[in-house]
Amino acid sequence: MALPAPAENQPYCTVSALEAGFIYLNHAMFIDNATSNEGHRTPSLSFLLQHSKNNKKWVFDLGIRKDWKNSPPSVVKWIENVYPSDVPQDVVDSLAKGGMSPLDIDVVCLSHCHWDHTGYTPPFAKSEFIVGGETSQLFEGGFWPQNPESFFPADLLPTERTKFLGENTNWEPVGPFPRAYNYYGDGSLYIIDAPGHLFGHINLLARTSADGAWIYLAGDTAHHWNLITGESVIACGHPGHLHGTAHQNKELAEEMIRRVGELRKLPRVKVIIAHDKPWYDENKAGRAFFPGHIDSL
């Protein structure tokens, strides 16, 4: 279960949180023992990762688009009726606070293609996009507006600049995860195949120091920390669900949650979920957000 030991002159990533909007989540939709049926204003976090040697710049997830009313009608209906959202500051605004623009970003990696993670992609006109291989299955019915019922706009992913991490990817085990992609080949950043929540769901495992610290960006592997700590199990049967639970495949999601729980037991590993309200409440407006960065353990 151990994570790879650092090499001599080990490269690593500096990780900064980015404000990317808020979504009201009802805990009863996600955990079986929620104490209320009320919504909680929860962040939809994004992250900037900068490599210590080559200075490549990554953004993991794009949160919610600021002009969400211009989303496909299916998404707008979902926001208005199930998941109220507000975006005082989007990813582009957050980058600007540190003197950076979307054109400075080398890679945009999306944990998955739900609207509260994809933001608005066209400003990232020079970036390579990376998504999980099964993401393509989401688009088999076509894009909006050609398909008026689609949740996915036609400009979501630039065809010529998008990489789908499928079976031709050099997957290898790392820690508790059977499928990880050593992106730079230097042990600084691993893309983790994280099935269960949605087709193509992926997470990131980044080394945050030259001497052995890590951060795990868990996306929507879990929407509430009680699932990772084992204090709750995945809620079933809530009327707001499309699949009976918040996940496309409950069994795979449970297995992925278990693996993240195992990872969390390892020394010097920080885990942050995409809608991490406790972490946000502790760190908002602090140095964890760009132009600052998250302290390494």
Automatic annotation (TrEMBL):
GO molecular function terms listed in the Swiss-Prot or TrEMBL record: hydrolase activity; metal ion binding
Domain of life, source organism: Eukaryota
Cofactor(s) the record lists: Zn(2+)
InterPro entries reported in the protein's UniProt record: MBL_superfamily_lactonases, Metallo-B-lactamas, RibonucZ/Hydroxyglut_hydro
Domain Metallo-beta-lactamase, residue spans: 43-275
Keyword field: Hydrolase, Metal-binding, Zinc
UniProt similarity note: Belongs to the metallo-beta-lactamase superfamily.
The protein's name: Metallo-hydrolase/oxidoreductase
Organism (species): Macrolepiota fuliginosa MF-IS2
